[in-house]
Amino acid sequence: MNKVKIKFLGAAGTVTGSKFLIETPELNLMIDCGMFQGLKELREMNWLGLPIDVPAVDMVLLTHGHLDHVGYLPRLVKEGFKGEIIATEPTLAITEIVLKDSGKIHEEDAERAKEEGYSKHENPEPFYTVQEAEDTLKFFKSVDEGEWTDLSENIKARFNYVGHIIGATFIELDIYGKRFVFSGDVGRFDDVLLDPPKKPEKADYLFMETTYGNRLHPHEELDDFFEDAIINALKNHGNIIIPSFAIERLQLLMYLLWKFQKDEEIPPIDIYVDSPMGNKVIQVFEEFPQWHNLPMNEFRQMMRNIHIVTSYKETWETIDNKKSKIIIAGSGMITGGRVLTYLKQMIDEPETIVILVGYQAEGTRGRQLLEGAEEIKFFGKYYPVKAQVESIHSLSAHADQGELLEWLSDIENQPEQVFLVHGEPTAADAFRVKLKDRFGWKAYIPKLNEEIEIDL
């Protein structure tokens, strides 16, 4: 009898901080190693250190490169990790970009907090530095998508295409003959840039994301939506600000807006993209064309017709330009990044239109705006919200409830256990009920830091 222990170190009862530790007699594996985002009580947990023996972790397997799945890696290394960090090539390329960018933001935030005195610490420290992010890269090891990789005598892994963002996969582990499936974040079945996700055919133990476990994405006529917003902005001499996730969403928005303009479905308007990280992700799209469906000839046309902001000086030139324009800037949930600079200058102007796209986690400024906040706080100060706030739900990179069920529909066996993770409590519970009704499966919603023991 072989005992396997599962520790839910993140994405349990919440959407962020994905970290699952699998302890076996042969190896100790971690699936994902993300940072908590959103609510202050969650963010503060990043600083507590992990309640495990970090040097005993042999490998980290990454589903994809989003911050809430990889952002804790430099801290893991700082806490003594010396194993391998394994993922597909584009995921490792994205992770490198994300970690370096995150380290830079941590350094800048600590410096600003010190200068402006809004930290409770006399000398605020960055969560990690750019150098510590770079020190993490030496542990990277790439694997081929769809191929089994032997990790030890009785444990092997396979990384399977799952859409969502470039390089993203779900992970199958065969441990002593039992199949453990970690969904990661499941993508859309009708994504403009990506193929439909592959589907698992077997799962003895299933770890299933539930970000949109209680919702269906609406069908929206995006050309009509943007046409109305642009006409409004031009008429009122205002600007459209779109806070965007730098990975996938930004590239999708660029492509859609360029194509709508090219096909004369929206009025002509200048489009500015201000996201240093997003610009680097564009290069990953160039490097891995087999991982997406954006034809390179269209990609190059698009790049010639969009203003790419490459410096902070250009950010201010864009702000000072009085001509109406669309500004796409990071970050998607307004937790940091260049978009704060634009909002600081424009969110108190009724002529400004802010368009939120994608998931807005609890405790983020994006969620506050979505729920009608009259003021938001950043850089230690409050700013009144006079801007018009709109939202688009159909551009989400996450599968909705129907698509999550579709993703599970090819599983031939009845899983012995199903764990619902990466979802807020109401979403996870709604999906639990759906699984029972659709498949007759019983599912469990683990608590943060809970440990489950399995006999194989």
**What's the overall average pLDDT, rounded?**
94
Strand content: 15-25%
Strand order of the largest sheet: 6-5-4-3-2-1-22
Stretches with pLDDT under 50, minimum 5 residues = none
Termini gap: 6 Å
Largest sheet: 7 strands, mixed
Query: Which descriptor suits the 3D outline?
Result: globular
**CATH topology group of the largest domain:** Metallo-beta-lactamase, Chain A
Secondary-structure arrangement, i.e. CATH architecture of the largest domain: 4-Layer Sandwich
> Count of helices?
14
Structural class: alpha/beta
CATH class of the largest domain: Alpha Beta
Describe the structure.
By secondary structure, the chain is an alpha/beta fold. The chain folds into 2 domains: about 5-215 and about 395-455, Metallo-beta-lactamase, Chain A (4-Layer Sandwich); about 220-390, Rossmann fold, CATH 3.40.50.10890. It contains 14 helices and 22 strands. It has helices at about 40-45, 65-70, 75-80, 90-115, 130-135, 220-235, 250-260, 275-285, 295-305, 310-320, 340-345, 365-370, 400-410, 425-440, and strands at about 5-10, 20-25, 30, 60, 85, 140, 150, 155-160, 170-175, 180, 205-210, 240-245, 270-275, 305-310, 325-330, 355, 375-380, 380-385, 390, 415-420, 445, 450-455. The strands form 4 sheets. Strands 6-5-4-3-2-1-22 form a 7-stranded mixed sheet. Strand 2 and strand 3 (about 30) form a beta hairpin. Helix 4 (about 90-115) runs antiparallel to helix 5 (about 130-135) and helix 4 (about 90-115) runs antiparallel to helix 8. The protein is globular.
